[in-house]
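Researcher: I'd like a candidate sequence for this fold, 542 residues long. If you have to choose between options at a position, lean toward the conservative one.
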C-alpha cells in the first residue's frame, strides 16, 4: 500500500526551504516548518509570506487561498516538532557535516516509518543516508529555485533506497504538480552537473575582466534565450551555496578544474556578498532578500559607451552567403547606405564607405587576404569589422595593416537580437565605440568582449552541450530526461540535445575543438560520442 503524506516537515527555511514549504502547503499538505533559531524562523516566515504576497499581487493566488496555505504551516524552532510527520525534507546549508548531524538527529526524532529526504544539490545522498539507522528510507528530493515555479524534481535513489520509497516519492511529486526525473547518486545529478561548470566559467570571465557583468548576462539571455544570465542566477542561488556546490562537485566529480571555484567566489562569500539574500552579490539589490536591482559603482552609464564613435553613413558588406544577404537587409532597414560587394574583385568599390563588414567563410588565409585588401583600398579611419565566429580577430587585424580599426561583430544568427563586439588587444576605443553605436542603431544589443575562442556565448554554451553528451555517453540518463531537466529545472528554452541537433553536430564539434585548442583544458575535449556521431552523420534524435 502506498504511503499517505498528510503531514510533512521542512528543515531550513532559507532560499530553498521556504519555497518547498510553499509547494506542499499550496497542494493541501500540512507542513511543520523548522529553523535553527527564533531569528532564522522569523526570516523563514518572512520568505514564505513575501513569496505568497507577491503571488497574490500578481493575481496568481487568491487571497483566501493564500490564507488557507499559510494556515497549513506550523512554524517551530528545533526538530522535536517533527515527531509525527510522514516525510521530512531538509534544506540546510550544503555541507556534509551539517547534513549528517541533522539526519542522525532526525532519525532519533521522527517516527520509524517516516521518509527522510535531502534537497542537497551535490553531496552524496548515500553518505547522508548512512548517518541514520534507516538508510533504505533516505532519498534525494532535489527541487529547483524558485521551488514554487520550477517544475522539475530530481529524485535521487541510492543503492540502499527501497523501491517502494522511490515509488511513493515519485507519486508525491506528481501530486505536487511536479515532473520527476529519477536518477542515481552522482555529484550534481543531471542539472547541476551541467549548470555549474558554466556558472563557474562565467565568474572566471568576470574576474578576468573579459566582459562586464551586464554584458556576460545579456549575452546568455539574448544569445541563448535563457531566463537570466549566469551572474544574476548565481545571485539568486546564493554565492555561499554555489561555492559549496562547486567545491563538492570538484571533489566528487573527478576533479575537473572547471568546477574548482574561481577565487573571486570565495572572496565574495568571505566578504558577506552572498547574492540576493544579503542584498549584494555580483549585483546590488534594494535590500536583503529583494530581487530588485539598484545601481552601484559598476553600473554602466549609457552615454559614455559610444563616446568617440565615428560617423557612419555608408556600410560595405562583403560576402555572398546568407549572413551577408541578411546584413545587407538589416543595414538598409536601419537607414544606412549599403554597398554590397563580392570579395572576388569588387573591393575598390569600398573606397568611400565608413564601415566595412566582412561576412565571408571562416577560412583564415582567405579572410586574412581579404583584410589585407581592405587595408589597401579603404580610406583612413574606416572601421573594419569581421563577422567570424571561429577565427582569432587579432590575426585578421594584423593582416589589415591597421589593427586599431578592426573589431569583430559576431551576429550569432541574423534573427537573434545579440551582437558580440570583439575588441582585440590592438582595437582602439573609437573603433569599439563606433561598433557599439552602429549595433545600437540596428536596434540590437551589443556586448563587448575580448578576442578569445567562442567569445562569450559559444565559450559558455558549447562546453555545457559537450558535457551533456558526456553524461549520455556515461549512461547516467537519457536524452529526454536530460533535455527535460534543463528545461523544467533551469528554464532553458530547449534541452541540450534538441539544441545540438538544431545547431548541427559538426558545428558543435568545430566550436568545441577550437575551445579545446585554445585553452588545452582536459574537460573541454570533445566528447568521443560527438565525434562518432559527426563521423556517422547521425543526429541525437531521429
Ligand atoms: N539555492 C539554490 O538555488 C538551491 C537550489 C536547489 C537546492 N539547493 C540546496 O538546498 C539546500 C539549502 O540551500 P539554500 O540555498 O536554501 O541555503 P540558505 O543558506 O538560503 O538556507 C539554509 C537555511 O538553513 C537554516 N539552518 C542551518 N542549519 C540548520 C539546522 N541545523 N536546522 C535547521 N535549520 C538550519 C539556516 O538558518 C538557513 O535559513 C542546500 O543543500 C542546497 O544545495 C539550493
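Model: Candidate sequence:
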Amino acid at each position: 500500500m502506498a504511503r499517505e503524506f498528510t503531514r510533512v516537515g521542512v528543515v531550513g527555511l532559507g532560499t530553498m526551504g521556504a519555497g518547498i514549504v510553499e509547494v506542499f502547503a499550496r497542494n493541501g499538505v500540512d507542513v511543520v516548518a523548522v529553523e535553527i533559531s527564533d531569528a532564522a524562523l522569523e526570516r523563514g516566515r518572512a520568505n514564505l509570506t513575501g513569496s505568497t504576497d507577491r503571488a497574490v499581487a500578481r493575481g496568481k493566488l487568491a487571497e483566501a487561498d493564500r490564507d488557507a496555505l499559510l494556515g497549513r504551516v506550523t512554524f517551530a524552532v528545533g526538530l522535536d516538532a517533527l515527531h509525527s510527520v510522514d516525510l521530512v525534507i531538509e534544506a540546510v546549508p550544503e555541507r556534509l557535516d551539517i547534513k549528517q548531524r541533522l539526519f542522525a538527529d532526525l532519525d532519533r526524532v521522527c517516527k520509524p516509518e517516516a521518509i527522510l529526504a535531502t534537497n542537497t544539490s551535490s553531496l552524496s545522498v548515500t553518505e547522508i543516508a548512512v548517518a541514520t539507522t534507516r538508510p533504505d528510507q533516505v532519498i534525494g528530493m532535489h527541487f529547483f529555485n524558485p521551488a514554487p515555479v520550477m517544475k522539475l524534481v530530481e529524485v535521487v535513489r541510492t543503492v540502499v533506497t527501497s523501491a517502494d520509497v522511490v515509488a511513493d516519492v515519485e507519486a508525491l511529486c506528481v501530486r505536487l504538480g511536479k515532473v520527476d526525473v529519477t536518477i542515481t547518486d552522482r555529484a550534481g545529478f543531471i542539472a547541476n552537473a551541467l549548470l555549474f561548470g558554466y556558472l563557474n566559467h562565467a565568474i572566471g570571465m568576470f574576474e578576468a575582466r573579459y566582459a562586464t557583468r551586464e554584458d556576460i548576462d545579456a549575452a546568455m539571455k539574448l544569445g541563448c534565450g535563457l531566463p537570466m544570465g549566469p551572474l544574476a542566477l548565481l545571485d539568486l542561488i546564493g554565492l555561499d551555496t554555489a561555492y559549496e556546490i562547486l567545491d563538492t562537485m570538484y571533489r566528487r566529480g573527478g576533479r575537473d578544474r572547471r568546477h574548482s571555484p574561481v577565487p573571486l567566489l570565495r572572496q565574495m562569500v568571505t566578504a558577506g556578498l552572498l547574492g540576493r539574500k544579503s542584498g549584494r552579490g555580483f549585483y546590488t539589490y534594494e535590500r536583503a532578500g529583494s530581487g530588485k536591482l539598484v545601481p552601484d559603482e559598476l553600473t554602466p552609464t549609457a552615454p559614455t559607451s559610444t563616446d568617440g564613435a565615428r560617423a557612419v553613413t555608408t556600410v560595405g558588406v562583403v560576402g555572398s552567403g546568407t549572413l551577408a544577404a541578411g546584413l545587407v537587409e538589416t543595414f538598409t532597414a536601419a537607414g544606412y547606405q549599403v554597398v554590397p560587394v563580392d570579395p572576388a574583385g569588387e573591393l575598390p568599390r569600398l573606397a568611400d564607405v565608413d564601415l566595412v563588414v566582412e561576412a565571408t567563410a571562416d577560412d583564415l588565409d582567405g579572410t586574412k587576404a581579404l583584410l589585407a585588401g581592405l587595408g589597401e583600398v579603404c580610406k583612413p579611419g574606416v572601421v573594419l569589422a569581421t563577422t567570424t565566429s571561429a577565427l582569432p580577430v587579432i590575426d585578421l587585424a594584423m593582416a589589415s595593416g591597421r589593427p586599431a580599426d578592426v573589431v569583430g561583430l559576431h551576429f550569432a544568427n541574423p534573427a537573434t537580437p545579440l551582437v558580440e563586439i570583439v575588441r582585440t588587444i590592438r582595437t582602439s576605443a573609437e573603433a569599439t565605440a563606433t561598433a557599439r553605436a552602429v549595433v545600437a542603431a540596428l536596434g540590437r544589443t551589443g556586448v563587448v568582449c575580448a578576442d578569445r575562442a567562442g567569445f562569450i556565448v559559444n565559450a559558455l554554451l558549447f562546453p555545457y552541450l559537450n558535457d551533456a553528451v558526456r553524461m549520455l555517453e556515461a549512461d547516467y540518463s537519457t536524452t529526454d530526461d536530460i533535455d527535460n531537466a534543463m528545461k523544467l529545472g533551469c528554464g532553458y528554452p530547449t534541452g541540450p540535445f534538441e539544441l545540438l541537433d538544431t545547431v548541427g553536430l559538426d558545428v558543435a564539434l568545430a566550436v568545441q575543438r577550437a575551445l579545446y585548442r585554445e585553452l588545452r583544458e582536459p574537460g573541454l575535449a570533445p566528447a568521443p560520442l560527438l565525434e562518432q556521431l559527426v563521423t556517422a552523420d547521425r543526429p541525437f534524435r531521429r
